[in-house]
Known about the structure:
eight-stranded parallel β-barrel, alpha/beta, single chain
Amino acid sequence: MTSSDSPARRPGEPALTALGLGAPAADPADTSPHAFPDGGTWRTEVPSVEGPEALSVVLKESSRLDVPIHRISQGSGIWMLSDAEITEMVEGCAERGIELCLFTGPRGSWDTGASTRTDSGGAGLRARGHDALAGCVEDALRASELGVKCLLVADEGVLWTLHRLRTRGVLPADTTFKVSALIGPVNPASFAVHERLGADSINIPSDLTLAHFTEIRRVSGAPMDLYIEAPDDLGGYVRMYEAAELIRRGAPIYLKFGLSRAPGIYPYGAHLRDVALDTARERVRRGRLALDLLARHGAGTNMSPLGSRLPGPLHRFTCD
């Protein structure tokens, strides 16, 4: 089943149509022809879950509010977690059939370079130099040995390197790589390049237009990740009312329940405990609001079964 099989009404449509203000009919050509291998068109993700305590809060709230979760991701980095903490998070997610995704590091904003603090942003959040690349690889290998199956990446070279390690069996074949919103592609060609470099899901910036979604889907079926509410440092955009249309055009897509107007917590430590737990709790509540909105608009069906994580066949560059 694809998103075109799920009829949905637009926000306010009946009332506006009665006033002669109805929107033009949706163009079927804009509907994504792609889906996850399980047939679903969308999955859910709770980001910025920085450790076991925050994970416990998210799991408790998701049960209380009946919010289905396919993936939980962390932003501070594998290097900010102890082996025991990673193991606890792996086990907690495994018990619920949730994919755990941890961030490889270090990256440009936290090493000795100052270019990310200039007006131009310099090289952004990429891994600077051989040592930073090596640190990302070390993180990936360590996390994999502890049972982590999804790794978050903010550098094209790191992505290609980890993909090559996966093809050689150094990393397990079912390891997946998620491209960070910090380097998210903004056009169809760059999206397709990330897919071919080894990405299994790709964050796109939350300010892309609906037309951009359709353009990307004409060249790639790789899963998209999208903040339907973005953190302030990624623009603070709130696109809940567009969720049904984002699914229709962007499937297969992960709906990420972010949080605007919230303090930054990267890299996380105990000094940020209260804000990390409070924001984790509120992200789940935002997820409930988004799911309720989808249901009201008749677009809450066609979600991937819980426990689904693999992206299906994707296009890759040939590894040497």
